Amino acid sequence: MKRATLFKGLSSVLGLLFFTVNGLTVGMFRNEGFINDALNITTTEQVDKGEGPVRYASEFAENINKFTQEELKAKNDAAQAFIEQEMEEGAVLLKNDNNALPLTETQIKKVTLLGWAAAHPYYRAHSGGNGTDGKISLKDALISRGFVINEAVYDALAAVNGERKNTSVVEAPVSTYDSLNGTFASYNEAAIVVLSREAGENDDLQVNYNDNGNMQSMLALTKNERDLLNMVKQCKADGTFKKVIVLLNSSNIMEVDWLDEYDVDACMWVGGPGVDSGIYGIADLLTGEANPSGKLVDTFSASSLSAPAMQNYVTAQRNHNNNLIYAEGIYVGYKYYETRYEDCILGQGDADGSAGVYASQGGKWNYADEVTYPFGYGLSYTSFTQTLDKVVDNGDTLTVTVTVTNTGKVAGKSVVQVYAQTPYDDYEKTNHVEKSAVQLVAFDKTEELAPGAPQTLEIEVDKYFLASYDYTKAKTYILSEGDYYLSIGDDAHDALNNILAQKGASGMTDHEGNVVSGNVEKVFTWHEELDTTTYATSATGEDVTNRLQDMDWNHWNEGDVTYLTRSNWQGTWPKSYNLSLTANMKVTDMYEKPADAPKATEVTTDEFADIMFAEMFGVELDEVDENGDNIWDKFIDQLTMDELISLTIDVKGIDAIKRLGFGGGTNDDGIDSVSFTNCYVNPNLAASSWNEDMFLRRGELIGEDCLFLKLNTQWGPGANMHRTPFSGRNFEYLSEDSVLFYELIGAQVKGTESKGVTVAIKHLFANDQEENRGSYGVYATEQALREIYLRPFEGAFVKGGATTTMTSNARVGFHRVGEYDSLINGILHGEWGFYGIIITDAGGGFTTPQEYIAKGGNMFCFVSDKADRAQKLKNAIILKNDGNFLNILKERAKETLYTYAHTNNMNDLTRESEFVDNYPWWKSAMIAINVVVGVVFAGAVTCFILWEYVFKKRDKIEFVDGDKGGKV
Amino acid sequence: MKILNFFKNKPLSFYLCLGACVLGVVTTIVYTAYSLSVYGKINGGADMGNHFNTVVFVMLLLGTLACAIGVAKPDWQFAPLIPSLLFSAAFGYYIDDRLIMIEEEINQIYGMMESGGNFGTVMFVFVLMLVCIVAVIVASFTDGTKKQRNANS
What we know:
Number of strands of chain A: 29
Low-confidence stretches of chain B: 148-153
CATH class of the largest domain in chain A: Alpha Beta
Number of domains of chain B: 1
Oligomer: heterodimer
Strand content of chain B: 5-15%
Strand content of chain A: 5-15%
């Protein structure tokens, strides 16, 4: 091959290499925030680390600014022990015939694990924070507790490949066990069958799942699972297996009305244990080292399709024009099943008709057929009695005194659940104030009680939770006039039966259909007059009144939507709506530069006052200096326009303003932890503990994790609802009940914020499913929105004091969340008193930058178009000479920096603190690779040109010259 | 017959450039049709328009046209080098363009920073581009002339 040809070929190869590397480099540089985050690189570093003050202390480190490895280990050990306890208190024992569980010391020596998930457990779904791969296998967890398992079967299951995800259920075909049946006899004390499902961010489970040609709910058993259970049933029938135990390893509630059909002795819902030590808790529960005390946070319905919300749930198979009508109103989860049950018992509202029948026999709706396990249900290895000692009405609150006694043989904890029924009479029916027949209003959990030991709990019930939002007449929360019932119960259904007994009803049944009579001793009744004022003003002094009417479709088009009402179950059973926006449904309050707006040049910026960020610690918003000037305003006046804009743009962190001693804001994503540290159990599993103290501790430990990582912000926890069982992120959200959610998330937030971490509650709000999450708009009555979908956020902000929130990408009505003035300024700031950072969802969110900032937004999350976005904001000021918008930007900056000034960002920070840029090593490496490849490439091209066109030409000239007598 | 004669006794680079040219047309059409037909959103939220990238399109188109030089003048030594660089540029900038998608697909979170794309189709476009590039790279390793022995046979 000629040299020129060789260089030409090499040039082509090197050209490909160069452009590949170069394209990759350009892409990496454009998304440097993601890469820095993945590599845990900070771009600004404090020079004098470890010498400054500790403003947010760790309980594990003497000086968190220079913690030791031993202190770090102590924190992690405490967290791992806590995570295990979360698992133990969160798992819910659903069935335990003949005390099949716990297994004895002898029994655990002969166990066969079955089901693909036994070797491939579900740990957590994919989303922000930690990954999905568990660090400890179920096998290892069991062995660590003395189990001896059937290795041959385990190995066979481990060898079966599959990818469990929102579009596929993986189960080993029953033929996997064909050659292994002979091993069962040696491990026959218990067959432990593990079944799982896995959804995730952006990935709802499938409503119409194709299981070998059979279209079904993904939460129903698949053919392979049925085959497996049949095989196990057969083995139990022929005496091979002595007992069958099913573990439901799924954060989405599966259909389990088949437990008796397959002769299952015991069943435990273990949810998602997280990727760390949670899985050890399962082993402890099986051995009895831990006694289950978890209670369901969602109703286990026989059919996953039976909730009225399923009629208007976006799926690829249904076209709702992306206008999603929450036509079920307040009847979400147990509030639907229990209310319909009461109406069946009392013969009202045509409740026992055929509308909404999914599992009932004979075409008439029947509770015991439709519900497998009610909300709040959960067994223990011991038994308890709960007596309602007294209830004291304090005016705005009720104090409920309950004595719990362990009447069994082993120690355990018991949850006291307090439910209420409020009047549903003419006023409510006339004014569309819907009422659940029973609603959780308070709860508490005992300490671990030894056999025979009692504990008396005093539980405070806030009457606010008894109030209903009347959006038609009073246009605020009301306490209805009439008789009120308050009952304790083992679960929502049990409590309702007690109330029904008090009301003199008959024909009640438990969830299995057995006739029960209820217990009036557990019920307290009293009377209230109509009260439309007590809850018409929030704690901030703001009127609590209609603010979300734009989200009620009927507000714009009267009569288009029929919301479900218990006064007419048949006539109002939700239709599947496919509505298009009408011309009047549009945003009309877009930001315009006011006529009297100052010129941008008239607004003070870049006015140095020699105030460093460290000096802003502890400075309140209204604090003034010796000249009477507001200190925060003076601090903000020091910022340039570019600096103000930089504070709105997050690229997995906020840029430093080094000259003012602000080292930048740090943050990380995760609802069960943040990255690079401990992973707590899935939030809905933690919620099943019904243990507020544990949630406070969970929050504190997550706060500790952030302290050690010096993370200022945690993007989590989540406060969206379990509206249906299919949401990809149900594992992130706590429950179908908004009061349980309110209390638990409030406690967690309090814990984390106490460690100097601002928690970003996500995703504000009504982001209750993943499919089309950026394009659908939610429509509902203001009653449903306030009582169900906003309440968890209210708990996080009002009870917990959260100082950041992340907006949803879903629309609320036709508004973008961050740009919905009456939500952001009316409710969030106004009614709830929120002061902090409002950040979009990742990618900059569903926003118009200027509009978002103008309406109250502070920050665009995790953007990949930093420069463009900054320019848009700059243009909004400069091109229109809009000083008003510049002032708004200053207010946003104040909210942002005030929030950071109340985080661990202030740890180690002094007036003298210095910061240096830390150029990421990978950028240097990529530049070097580009230069080297580029030079070699250019060299090859040059060589080709030289040999092909210069040397060759010269040779020809020399040849020609030679012809003339020259040298050849 | 004249057309058939045109294809006879041509050097290897001629056929490779011709193949790359045809495939380049196909790739350009597939890329354009696909990228104009899918609409993305940032995290399912803010519209980011369709997935069409002008730089990638122009490089593909120019690469395809440049292949015609290798077809028309296979003995021009630089003929296959030009399309190889243009196709490589298209390939490189398509990597830049699709980096987030690839990252999200690997992490099973596609839809967070972008949505609307079809990973399979994107990979198909990458493969088409690569085939074009490999063809002209191989052509670059030839001298673009028919060997005399072959010419006489």
